[in-house]
What does this fold into?
Amino acid sequence: MRVLVLGAGGFIGSAIVDRLIESGHCPVLGGRDPKVLSARWPGWPTLAFDFERECSVAEWVQRLEGVDAVVTAVGIIRERHADEFVAVHERGPRALYAACAQKGGMAIVHISALGADAEAASAYHRTKRDLDAYLSTLPLPWTILQPSLVFGPEGASSQLFLMLATSPLIVLPAGGPQPVQPVHRDDVVSAVLGALSQPRGCGRLAVVGGRCMPMAEYLLTLRRGMGYRRGWVWRAPVALVRIGSRLGIGGGVADRDTLAMLERGSCADAGPMARLIGRTPRAPDAFLDGKDAAQARRAAVLGWAIPFARWTLAALWIATGIVSAWFYPREESLALLARTGLTGGVAVGALYGASVLDLALGFGVLWKVTRGASYVAQLALMLGYTAIISVCLPEYWLHPYGPVTKNLPIFALTVLLWQLDTRPAKPGATRQQ
It folds into this structure.
């Protein structure tokens, strides 16, 4: 079967392509950048598309020549600009499906979302619901798969949940009673392949795991899967979280629409899903095992440890600049500078110039554009300070408070952040599912 996979480079779409190839099908790789897709899957046909750009039904009819089925795994969780949800979730796919109906005899598997129904409140769910309603009217063998939370170690939402699960204190709105029914990406892909094998399609189907559970239990289950024994959950006041979400403070589960979707819940009967894939969906306690668990744990810890270390390092430089300029006795600072050979106006300029430099380096770490340069400058400055102190004030190496020896772990931390916190984005990164 020749299957057009739209969103082939995304989290779900890429797994669908791999399974189609393993099963002997011929996937056509649809995405914004065909070069990236060809680099990952050499030799397979590609198709450039972007639902945000207008494409007529007639144009889609031409593009669908020779295609037996269409799988759409395209979606965004947040808008970058107005009308993006409508373009990506509704207007673009509508033209595609109208072309499928015009050609006739073509199977469609559309990946929607659980909650895209009459009670949908968020723009994310409403636009998916409207497209689902349109697709269900077409005279084609269609399947609308509506997943709950989809787990995969490299998925953006999964990485957020893994990061929360590994944090020393798991902070959740109201302690995390929100009901979820997470499903593994492999099971979602199995549902797609199962739907493609049904000549008449499967209609609308909830794609969920085998058990509905509170969000807190889900995170604690992931925590155990990564080798942690215990976990503590803090009940963040819901009113405070809602205020923060309205102000745009805090991403992830604190995002306004995401919070509303979590509060509504994401559970359904798993029976139809189990019958389609021929087995019980994988349970959350089996999402991670062996090598995957170790890699997920490392990535999750780095997810919160790097920002924490970055802000801590920035605070150190900013505090040093403030203390040096305004709080530490000026006479004592000038006396130390005199021992290095700086006196008078030169010493005063060096004192306040160094304070300004410390402040600049601290704030430079917090701004992504200057972060890499700030790390390099910090390393050079620490080496310079250490050399001067070693020559002019060598007794500070033996000081019980370790004012110089503490530079060693700070230097090591800065090198680590320089390497881990300034990595370029992965080639071909996409916002598609």
